[in-house]
Amino acid sequence: MPNRLAAATSPYLLQHAENPVAWHEWGGEAFALARQKNRPVFLSIGYSTCHWCHVMAHESFENPEVAAVLNEYFVSIKVDREERPDIDRLYMAFVQATTGSGGWPMSVWLTPNAEPFFGGTYFPPADCHGRPGFVTVLERIAELWAREPERVLAQGADVIASLRETSAAPAGAEPPDASPLRAGCEAFAGVYDPVDGGFGGGPKFPRPSVFNFLLRIEKPRALEMTLHTLRRMAAGGVRDHLGGGFHRYSVDGGWRVPHFEKMLYDQAQLAGSHLDAWQITNDPHFADIVRETLGYVSRRLTHPRGGFFSAEDADSLFEHGKPEHGEGAFYVWSHEEIARHLDAESAAIFCRHYGVEPGGNVDPSADPHHEFTGRNILFEREPAGSESLAKSRALLAEVRDQRPRPHLDDKILTAWNGLMISAFARAGAVLDDEGFLAAAGRAAAFIRSELFDEKSGELLRTWRDGRAAIRAFAEDYAFLIQGLLDLYEAGFDSAWLSWAIELQGMQDKLFFDQAAGSYLGSAEGDPLVPLRLRDDYDGAEPSANSIAARNLLRLGWLLHDDAFVGRARRVVGSFATILRRMPSAVPQMLCALDMLLAPPRQCVIAGGRGAADTAALARALHRKFEPNRVILFAGDTAASREMKPIGGRAALYVCEDFACRAPITDPSEIVPRLRASA
User: Fold this and answer.
1) Is 465 left (phi over 0), alpha (psi -120 to 50) or beta?
2) Quick one: angle between helices 149-167 and 85-99, nearest 10?
3) Which of these, 216, 378, 390, 417, lies nearest to 288 by C-alpha position?
4) 228-242 burial, b if ≥16 CB within 10 A, otherwise e?
C-alpha cells in the first residue's frame, strides 16, 4: 500500500512510495505529528540516482521489520537534496561537524523543533565489523529519547546555536589584491597529478570551477595542468565513449573506473571547460567533446518542450533479465559480446584501442564488490588510428541501447537548467551552431513559462509532470541569470538581458545579507528551517555567491551601472578571509576576483540585428577566449545608443575603462587587435 510519498513530485521520493515506512514529506504536518506524539524525527536525505541510497533503501526501508521500528518510535521524513538544497546544506553541516565526513544517504535525527542531535550517512541493517547497524541505532536513540528527552532537546538547541555561530559570515571587507590568485594556482599545482591529471589521488572528481580559474591565469603551468587533465578525463572510463557525456567521478586515480551516474550539472560545466580549451588551443578534440556531450544531453536529458532533466542513474538491470541491480551494468562489456557484434578485424582494433581484455579490464582493487568481474569499462588505451572505430562505436551504441536503460531522474531544476543554458548558448556562439543556440533559447523559454511567477516576479525550484513546486534558492537565481547573460551575448535577444536584470533585483531582495555583504542560500519565511546558511564552497557546483559576483560585474559593465559593480565588490570582499587563507576552496570566487581586478571591457557591435556582417563580427569575437569582457548589441543599453555602423557596415567598438578605440569592420582584424591590446 503506498505511503504519503505517492503524491510527491520528486522521483527520489516516489522511489520510496511503496516502502512500509510511514514516510512524510518535509512540512509542518510531520513536525506537528512529532510534537503531538512526543517523538523524535528521523530525517533521510538523498537523491534518485544515488547508488548507496538504493542500497540502504533495499536493505532497510523496504524491510518490514526495520519499518516497524521506525513507525513505532519516530516520525520519518524523506527529503530530495536536489529539491531542497537548504535542508541538505544545514544538516550536512551538522553531520560533517560531528562525524568528520558526510555523504548520501544522509541520516539525521531531529527534535520535533527540527534541531539535529545525532547523524550519519549509510547504516547497514545489522551490526557488522564492530559498526552498529541501523536497527541498533534506532533502538538506542528511541531509548535515549524515552529516558532523557529534556537532555536531547537541549542538545539540539545547542547544536543550532553552535552552527549559527560558526557559520556566521564575517562582516564585509575590502576585496583582496591579486595575491589569492597566485596562491590558488600554487595550491592546485601542489596536489596536481602530472601523470593522470586531476588534483590529488583517487577517487577523482571533476571540479570544473578549478578549470575555470586555472584557464584564466596567464601562466603556462596553469594551462598545462588544465589541458592535460581534460585530455586524461576524456580518454578515461569516466567519459561515455559510446553515448557521450561524463560520469560523476572515478573511484581510481586514473579516471578509468567511474561511478556511473550522469548529472546534468557535470555535463553543463564540463562542456564549458572543453569549450574554453578549444578557444585557447583551436584543438578540434575539445570541440568534438563539446558536441558529443551536448548531443548526449539533447538525446537523453531534454524534455520535448526544451527543459533539461536532472540525471541518469548509475544502476541498471544486468542483461539477460537478471533481477538484481548492478552499478554500471548498462555501460560495461564482455570481450565475447564485442567479438559477437563486430567483425574480427574491427573487434581487434576496437579492443586494442579501448583496452578490452578477455577476462575483463577492471583492477580488482577498484572493484571491491566484484561488480565488474569479467567485464570491461571502455577507456582509450592508445590513440585513435582507424576509421573503423567510428563505425564500431555507432554499432555498439545501437546494441547497448537495447539493454534496460538506467533510471532517468526527469525533474527539471531551475539552477541546473541555468548551467545548461550557459553551455548551449556559449557553444552555439563559439562553434557557430544555430541548433545549440536554439536549444538554449527553448530551455530559457520553458523556465519562464513553467517556473516563473509573472505576478510575484519569483522563480520556483523544480518542475515535473506539469507541476512546479518549491520557492527557488539563491543558486537558482544566480545560475539562471548567468545563463540568460550568456544567451543574450550569444544571440543579442534583448528580452533575455531584461529578464536577467529583473531576476537580479529579486535575488538581491530575497537573499542578500546586508550586514555580511553576501547572499544567503534561502529566503526568509520557512519556520521549519532553523538556520539560513551562506554557501561558501565551490564544489561539484559553484556557490551562488561566486556566480552572483560575476553576474553583478557583467551587469555593471553592460549597463555602465556602478551600483552593480559596488555590490559585486561587497560580495567578493565578504569572502576576503577565505580567499586569503584557503583560495582553493573557492576557485569560482577567484574568477570573480580576477574580473573585479581587471579594467572594465565592453565589446559593442553596431549593425543590423541578425544581419550577416553583424553575425560575422560576433563569430570572430566569440572565437577568442576572453572571459573578462562583456558583449552587447548597440542600442540595447543607454550607453551604447550612440555607437553606429561605419559606412553602412557593421562595426565593433572595443571599450576599456569606458574609453573606446577605433571601430573594427573587418572580422579578420578582431583577434590581432584584441591580442595587441591584451
Assistant:
1) left
2) 100
3) 390
4) bbbbbbbbbbbbbbb
pLDDT of residue 308: 98
**Single residue among 371, 402, 433 that ends a domain in this structure:** 402
Residue whose grid cell is 583492477: 363
CATH of the domain at 127: 3.40.30.10
| Spans of the chain, pLDDT less than 70 | 172, 317-325, 385, 675-678
pLDDT at position 368: 78
Question: What does 535-578 look like in DSSP terms, one character per residue?
Answer: ----SSS--HHHHHHHHHHHHHHHHT-HHHHHHHHHHHHHTHHH
Backbone phi, psi, residue 361, to 5°: -120, 15
Give residues with Cβ within 8 angstroms of 221, minimum separation 6: 185, 189
Q: What are the residues facing 459 on neighbouring strands?
A: 452
Q: Which of 359, 387, 402 is the last residue of a domain?
A: 402
Asked whether residue 515 is assigned to any structural domain, the reply reads yes
Tell me, yes or no, whether 349 and 479 share the same domain: no
* Helices 264-281, 414-430: crossing angle, 10 deg rounding: 20
Three-state DSSP class for residue 194:
coil
Residue 65 confidence (pLDDT): 95
Looking at the fold, whether 123 and 21 belong to one and the same domain comes out as: yes
Q: Are residues 35 and 99 in the same domain?
A: yes
Same domain (yes/no): 471, 609: no
Q: Read off the CATH number of the domain in which 648 is found.
A: 3.40.30
Position 319 scores a pLDDT of 41
Helix extents (H) in 217-334 = 220-235, 264-281, 284-300
pLDDT, tens only, 354-408? 999 999 999 888 777 778 889 999 999 987 767 889 999 999 999 999 999 999 9
357 and 438 in a single domain? The answer is: no
Determine the structural domain holding residue 36 and report its residue range. Answer: 4-167
**pLDDT value at residue 620:** 95
Does residue 110 sit in the same domain as residue 227? no
Show the 3-state SS of 592-634. HHHHHHCCCEEEEEECCCCCHHHHHHHHHHHCCCCCCCEEEEC
196 domain residue, yes or no: no
635 shares its domain with 569: no
Cell of 633: 548589441
Instruction: Determine, yes or no, domain membership for 178.
Output: no
In 529-551, which positions are buried (b, 16+ CB within 10 angstroms) versus exposed (e)?
bbbbbbbbbbebbbbbbbbbbbb
Q: Which pLDDT score, from 0 to 100, does residue 388 have?
A: 87
pLDDT value for 675: 67
The 10s digit of each residue's pLDDT in 510-539 is 999 999 999 999 999 888 888 899 989 999
pLDDT of residue 321: 39
Rounded CA-CA distance 378/376 in Å is: 6
Is 181 inside any structural domain?
no
pLDDT digits (tens, 9 = 90+) for 159-217: 889 888 887 777 768 999 999 999 999 999 999 999 999 999 989 999 999 999 999 98
> For residue 294, what is its C-alpha cell?
551536448
Q: How many domains does the chain have?
A: 4
Given this model, what pLDDT does residue 677 score? Answer: 62
CATH number at residue 219: 1.50.10.10
Q: Do residue 504 and residue 526 come from a single domain?
A: yes
Judge whether 223 and 192 are in contact, CB under 8 Å. Answer: no
